[in-house]
Amino acid sequence: MLCLIVLLAGGVVYYIEYELQDIDALNTVQLQTPLQIYTNDKKLMATFGENRRIPLPYQEIPKQLIDAVLATEDQRYFRHGGVDLPGIGRAAIQLLLTGRKSQGGSTITMQVARSFYLTRQKTFARKLREILFAIKIEHKVKKEKILELYLNKIFFGNRAYGVEAAAEIYYGKHVSGLRLDQYAVLAGLPKAPSTLNPLANPEASKKRRDHVLYRMYDQGYITKAQYDDALKAPIDARYHDLQTEVKAPYAAELVREQLEQMYGDSIYTDGYKVYTTINSKLQHAANKAVREQLLAYDERHGYRGPIDNLGEPSLTNMDDWQKNLMKRSTVNELEPAAVVDMTDKTITVLRQSGDLTILPWDTMSWARKQINADYLGPMPKRASQIVKTGDVVYVYNGKEGKEGPRFVQMPKAEAGLVAMAPQNGAILAMVGGFDYQSSKFNVMTLGKRQPGSSFKPFVYSAALDKGFTLSTVINDAPIVVQQEDDTLWRPQNVNRKFYGPTRLRVAITESRNLVTIRLLALMGLPYTINHLTKFGFVRSQLPPGLSLALGTAMVTPLQMAQGFTVFANGGYKVVPYMIDTIRNSNNQLIYQAKPLVACSTGCAPNQAKAPHTLSAQNAFLVTSALQDVIRKGTGKEAMHLGRNDLAGKTGTTQDQVDAWFAGYNPDLVAVAWVGFKQPQSLHEYGAQAALPVWMQFMRVALAGKSDKPFTMPPDIVAAKVNAYSGKLTDDDDDDALNEYFMASAMPGRETYREQLDDENNSSTYRDAENNVTNNGNATNGGGADAQQELY
Predict the structure, then answer these.
(1) In three state form, how does the secondary structure of 609-648 look?
(2) Phi and psi dihedrals of 418, rounded to 5?
(3) How far is CA 166 from CA 169, 172, 377, 603, in A?
(4) Which helix (H) or strand (E) element contains residue 417?
(5) Which of 457, 715, 727, 768 holds its CA 20 to 30 A away from the CA of 277?
């Protein structure tokens, strides 16, 4: 008999050691973990993956949660060797008494064995293998590591795997920030995640929680006072998506798409951590600027009415109203609320939380009724002219929450902003629309729109390379162009006036359309289009006609930002990028970005130099003119930022369909766009709609940073010119002013313009000149369909 027992024991030992799968991998096991995307300052932007899991090391799991789990699941965990014989005995007795198989008797180690190596099929064979695996695991893996695996792998319902994901899904907090009663809720879930779910069945969840609390008290983990207090706590779980620290969904989606191309579907399970170039402070500033300035634009165009009406309020239907509000989404911090009462100058609304909030008059006095896109009703004098009881409206908590809740409406227009570092193309902030959940279309990367006059700097850059100067004078006079379809194009300045001979600096500062068209005609389209490719624009985007001078190319805001980096960094063509580093689940670096850097002689050994596609002199001269746009031109509102290191250009397309502002200083380029998804008039110019977005962002982005003047490169000469002729002059000239020149293109020398024949060598220009009405009293001519007004 003894020999038989010895042989049986030896067989078991042999089976455990040699026949069961090797379990050494448990010490280094990689749980299926979703993709996590972070900012450059290591703040979580997004998580992608079907299963939500955020693994924690044992030492970061709160002791009270461990106590709750052990008290309920395996109270002798630290005393047994993987198998709890008394527990198995109890399970066997239950089987004999009831005739039903039960999961009773399984230790945490046995559950880990089943989870990693076995099926959930309830058979005696599987149970025996589970026991043998548990014994083997206990001999190879430390107790703390086994418990860590268990608490990170078990399912808690609602796609949450592991305690950290469960804490964030149910309570919107890190697990370290929960209360005792909440730990008890989580500890009770693994037994039946569906039926004990606090969201689907709060009553069952409460009973299970109270049982867990009693087990903790009975086993001495908590005091009687702690037990009593925890029992009184409500079941306050609510669904929360996994917690993020920075809202940047459009940027995160770009990263996800690129990673999927690089690594395939494994990115959703293999625990990649991606660190981007996004700066959390700048992203937050961009989010606020787009949201608040789009709300401001919308307010300027009147109130369109409530979302819905719930009828007359009463004490008995407030709960129904709250449930109705809870079903409605909060959109980019705009929360639905219901009007329950009003005075002449206030509105009282019911919030989703059940709270009542009073909205003061100054937050709603803007709400003139929108009759149509062109006409607003009179200014309201009392609240009843704006809303009635039962109306469902939107409430916004105001700038930084300091101004209190405001009466707002959901904007119909869209807006976006992208910011880049001109030295290497790093994307520092990106907002691709008002709300990602409402529209996932990223207008910064996918929205090809006409940039209007914000495109003109690139045309003027071509002129400077051709030999023109900022003091070159071109006639601002009517021009008529016969197009390929034999129709006549009669472009106009925005105010439909003609100013006669105009220096190029003035033309770009005041956005003169006719001067820019004539300039393009003088240079020729082939030359100009070739020059535009130096900024990253693609030839297929550039129309082969004189309207190109007015910004009829179809480009994205990101392309515009890339183009303006060439001016900001002194002529280098950098490439936009967002992924900086990628680490695998073992925290090993598997990818490091190597961006092209705008450096001449100061490049680091590991840096790749960006191509120098534009001379530093050209970039400086264009920047000088764009600084005048802000100092005294169409962007002069930006002077309220109180800085002297800003350059930029407004843009508005035909019929005010798209509004732009592109601006920069030596360290930062930002482009703002406002428009509608389906093109229609904004009834505002770029300076009114887009510039405020840019200004609000730059005010935060440059706060605390001193002015950083643009560096004047060699071979730039300053000289006095006559304000009207553009010719060199001296201090005795009352109309003298300072101007910058490339040393090779000083007035008085024979420049390209002076080499031109009477009509010059450009057939395009000659054809255009032949159609110019030179009579100073010429009419504008043509109908709306014959005019292209882009400024």
Answers:
(1) ECCECCCHHHHHHHHHHHHHHHHHCCCHHHHHHCCCCCEE
(2) -130, 140
(3) 5, 9, 51, 48
(4) strand 414-420
(5) 457
Answer yes or no: are the C-beta atoms of 146 and 108 closer than 8 Å: yes
| Residue of 73, 164, 168, 739 marked catalytic | 73
The catalytic residue among 106, 453, 454, 461 is 453
Residue 453 designated active-site: yes
Distances from the Cα of 52 to the Cα of 245, 664, 748, angstroms: 16, 40, 72
CA–CA distance, 768 with 761 (Å, rounded to integer): 13
Tell me how far apart the alpha carbons of residues 161 and 420 are, in angstroms, rounded to a whole number: 37
Q: Are strands 346-350 and 596-597 parallel, antiparallel or unpaired?
A: unpaired
The answer to whether 480 and 770 have CB atoms below 8 angstroms apart is no
Strands (E), 676-735: 716-722
- Give the DSSP letter of residue 156: -
Q: Over the stretch 679-730, which tens digit does the pLDDT of each residue have?
A: 999 999 999 999 999 999 999 999 999 999 999 999 999 999 999 999 999 8
pLDDT, tens digit (0-9, with 9 covering 90-100), for 181-191: 999 999 999 98
Q: What pTM does this model have?
A: 0.83
Identity of the amino acid at 775? N
Q: What is the share, in percent, of the chain residues with pLDDT greater than 70?
A: 86
Helix axes 108-117, 124-140, angle to 10 degrees: 110
Measured torsion, CA atoms of residues 400, 402, 403, 405, in degrees rounded to the nearest 10: 70
Q: 632: which 2 tokens?
A: 């005294």
Token representation of residue 74: 């395996």
Handedness of CA 582, 586, 589, 590 (dihedral sign): negative
Q: Is 323 exposed, middle or buried (0-12, 13-18, 19+ CB in 10 A)?
A: exposed
Which letter, b or e, does each residue of 103-124 get, where b requires 16 or more Cβ atoms within 10 Å of its Cβ?
A: eebbbbbbbbbbebbeeeeeee
| CB-count exposure of residue 723 (10 Å: 0-12, 13-18, 19+) | middle
Exposure on the CB side of residue 213, measured as CA atoms within 13 A: 24
Q: Report the distance separating Cα 753 and Cα 750, nearest Å.
A: 8
Buried b (16+ CB within 10 A) or exposed e, 629-648: bbeebbbbbbeebebebbbb
Known catalytic residue: 454? no
Structure tokens at 563: 């183009």
User: What is the torsional sign of CA 716, 720, 722, 727?
Assistant: negative
Query: In this structure, what token pair is assigned to residue 520?
Result: 């393009």
* Dist CA 131 CA 82 (whole Å): 8
* Residues contacting 362, CB < 8 A, separation 6+: none
Alpha-carbon distance of 48 to 260, in angstroms, equals: 11
The model's pLDDT over 294-304, given as tens digits with 9 standing for 90+, comes to: 999 999 999 99
Classify each residue of 164-188 as buried b or exposed e, where b means 16 or more C-beta atoms within 10 Å of its C-beta.
bbbbbbbbeeebeebebbbbbbbbb
Neighbours of 588 (CB within 10 A): 8
Q: What is the mean pLDDT of residues 228-238?
A: 94
Which of 633, 693, 639, 637 has its CA nearest to residue 661?
693
Rounded distance between C-alpha atoms, residue 701 and residue 518, angstroms: 38
Q: Are 165 and 52 in contact (CB under 8 A)?
A: yes
